[in-house]
Write a structure and sequence with these properties.
There is one protein chain. α2 runs antiparallel to α3. The N and C termini lie far apart (51 Å). With 100 residues, the protein is mostly helical. It has helices at 2-13, 19-39, 46-67, and strands spanning 73-76, 83-86. It has a two-stranded antiparallel ribbon with strand order 1-2. The chain is globular, with a radius of gyration of 16 Å. It has three helices and two strands, in the order αααββ.
């Protein structure tokens, strides 16, 4: 479990500046939350609760940044009270069937 928790700490430490860490953030935080749930299915212990809150905050931050019209987007992740700034990803053009 310690290596997985260390991975989350590393990802969250660089999430503002590393596109790779933003890509890894949600699956890594969800892995910790699932691992905690296996040992504590009721989430009765604070580390289990914190793991799910962190995963939820990461998912919300990535969604907010991905749907923002302008960036960066400020979001709170973790229990330190600090906010992180997420850049808005570059828009990709897509085709809409039937409009061609």
């Amino acid at each position: 479990m310690a290596p997985v928790i260390k991975s989350v700490e590393d990802v969250l430490a660089h999430i503002e500046t590393s596109e790779d860490d933003r890509y890894d953030a949600l699956p890594t935080t969800l892995a910790v939350a699932n691992w905690r749930s296996a040992a504590d299915p009721r989430a009765a212990e604070f580390p289990s609760w914190e793991a799910w809150v962190t995963a939820t905050q990461v998912g919300s931050a990535l969604f907010a940044a991905g749907t923002a019209d302008e960036g960066p987007v400020s979001c709170r992740i973790g229990n330190s009270g600090e906010t992180s700034s997420f850049p808005r990803p570059a828009r990709r053009t897509t085709s809409t069937p039937g409009t061609g």
